[in-house]
Design a protein that fits this description.
The protein is α+β, with helices and mostly antiparallel strands. The protein folds into two domains: 52 residues, no CATH class; 30 residues, no CATH class. The chain has two helices and six strands, in the order E-E-H-H-E-E-E-E. The two termini are 25 Å apart. About 7% of the residues have low confidence. InterPro entries: E3_UB_ligase_RBR. GO terms for molecular function: ubiquitin-protein transferase activity.
């Protein structure tokens, strides 16, 4: 996926959607993030999670990793979902 970021005055933005830098996360995915999930560190974590195949709890949004067993997950917040 091509990167559409440009550096201007020590800040980066996406030339395609005119929002903050979001690396390899699509413009649509970035727009769907809450404002407190748009930092550079958050984007890097999301890229790592995508590369490792991690999923997020639909309730508390924490990342979880399936190591073995069935696809059912019991999150620490109490939410039940399938990996």
């Amino acid at each position: 996926m091509a990167s559409h970021t440009h550096k201007v005055d020590a800040s980066q933005y996406c030339a395609q959607c005119k929002l903050g830098w979001h690396g390899r996360i699509s413009c649509a995915e970035f727009r769907n993030l809450s404002k407190d999930e748009r930092s550079r560190e958050d984007i890097l974590l999301m890229e790592l999670a995508r590369n490792r195949g991690w999923r997020r709890c639909p309730n508390c949004k924490i990342f979880v990793e399936k190591i073995d067993g069935c696809s059912h997950v019991s999150c620490r917040c109490g939410c039940q979902f399938n990996y």
